[in-house]
Amino acid sequence: MTRTQSNSHKNTAFKLSEQVKATLHAKGYSFLFNYQDYEYYKKQAKRAFNKAQAIAELFIQDNQPTKSDYHGYIF
Predict the structure, then answer these.
(1) Model confidence band, residue 67 (pLDDT cutoffs 50, 70, 90)
(2) Origin, by domain of life (predicted)?
C-alpha cells in the first residue's frame, strides 16, 4: 500500500492573487485588495509582462487619494 501526499500547500505562493496581495502589502496598500476588483484588473493586465505588479499598480492608481498604511509612521 502506497501513501500519497498532497502538496497543495506548497503552490499557494505562485497564485497570481497571492502575488498581488504580497505586492500590495509590501507597498502598504493591503487593505485595497478585493476579489471583484482583482478579476477586473486581471482582465486589463492580461498582456503585461509582470501581471502581479501591473494589477497592484492598477489597484493603487484607481484608489489614488487613499494613503498607504505607512503614511502615519515616521521613519
Answers:
(1) confident
(2) Bacteria
User: What is the DSSP-derived secondary structure letter of residue 14?
Assistant: G
Helix (H, G, I), strand (E, B) or coil at 20: helix
Rounded CA gap, 52 and 37, in Å? 13
Q: What's the CA dihedral at 11, 17, 21, 22 to 10 degrees? A: 40
Query: CA-CA distance, 71 to 68, in Å (whole number)?
Result: 5
Say what the pTM is.
0.73
Helices 16-27/35-44 angle, 10° precision: 100
User: How many other CB atoms are found less than 10 A from the CB of residue 62?
Assistant: 12
Cell of 45: 493586465
Q: Closest by alpha carbon to 41, among 26, 11, 20, 15?
A: 20
In the predicted model, is pLDDT for residue 9 greater than 80? no
